Amino acid sequence: MKVSLKDVAEHAGVSIKTVSNVVNNYQHVTPAMRARVQQAIDELGYRPNLTARHLRKGRTGIIALAVPELGNPYFAELAGAVIDVAAEHEYTVLLDHTGGRREQEVLVSQGFRARVIDGLILSPIELEHEDLRERSDDAPLVLLGEREYDLPYDHIAIDNVAAARTAVRHLLDLGRTRIAFLGARTDRVNQPAQLRLHGWRAELTEAGLAAPDSLVAPTTGWDHAHGAAAMAGLLESGVRPDAVFAYNDLIAIGAMRVLSEQGLRVPEDVAVVGFDDISEGRYGAVTLTTISPDKQTIARLAVQSVVGRLLGTADSAQAGEARQIRPDFSLVERESTRGKV
User: What is the Cβ-side half-sphere exposure of residue 297, based on CA atoms within 13 angstroms?
Assistant: First the structure.
């Protein structure tokens, strides 16, 4: 049986307005009255109609999260974190898969779901500045990921250059000097891969070591197969690194497979560092050292930004400057660099 506000009010012996004030968490309710109403809610099993509550405010109660690859464990884990945080704010998350295609990212950002969602969290790959400058949708937009935009929207991204330098410094501290980079891209100068490549080169240069192009293995994608192909191509070219820093964990795991097939031991012969700290990297035959972005914090900041703008508690693109937010990251050391303990 569906329990109504009237049922709760009668059970608690108070007015419907008092019950509504408690349900909506209004401040001007005495602690004793709040406890009395909450007891009635618990005893009757009342659940508020969140959809109706949002509609009364002219909203749908839905936030969209658009990512390039739902099959990529990093984005899957991030989506789970966003869903959990949004639920704390009584919002539902609608997932969009853009495939990293510019046309799809434009479609999502331009508000083709304008009547369905209250705000958008977007992780773009190919979207250009001009695409967002022409945005007419006034729903709050938050950008994720490491592409650099000089635009009036909150942008949440770790410092890729600093993270890459941290990974390379770890390998240098272990005595590795021929450190390859797997996963370079040549199609976009602001791509995260290019920023990580820049960090790789900067740290090697500061250490007084060469950073030749022969140690850079480009890929056309981001999964295991691309990592395996890049590692195989590097070895076939006659280049023998003593360490690998990979664009992401999937590429690193693919590379480790090829190293094993070639009779090279990880980390004794070749140490490997990935990026993203996906769960798969924690359970392989050799667990993966990786750069770990704080996905929980990224999710929380993104949802808080959208909700804050909807509630008027954060600076909006129209009312104030957009924020460039840099969440923390950490290096998680595992067997692929430290060996089995």
Answer: 12
Lowest mean pLDDT among 122-131, 312-321, 332-341: 312-321
**pLDDT digits over 317-328, tens only?**
444 567 889 999
Question: Rg for the chain (alpha carbons), in Å?
Answer: 25
> 6-19 burial, b if ≥16 CB within 10 A, otherwise e?
ebbbebbebeeebb
At 256, the amino acid letter reads: M
Residue 54: per-residue pLDDT: 47
Edge-to-edge strand order for the sheet containing 324-325? Answer: 92-97, 62-67, 119-122, 141-144, 154-156, 324-325
Cα(first)–Cα(last) distance of the chain, in Å? 58
For residue 36, give the amino acid letter.
R
For residue 292, the surrounding DSSP H or E stretch is strand 289-293
Residue 234 token pair: 């590097």
Structure tokens belonging to residue 325: 């937010």
Q: What is the pLDDT of residues 273-309, one digit of tens each?
A: 999 999 999 999 999 999 999 999 999 999 999 988 8
Reading the block at residue 192, the tokens are: 């995260």
pTM here is 0.79
Nearest CA to 269 out of 172, 336, 190 is that of 336
Distance CA 118, CA 108 (A): 13
Which residues neighbour 41 within 8 Å (Cβ) at sequence distance 6 or greater?
8, 19, 22, 23
Longest dimension (CA), the chain: 83
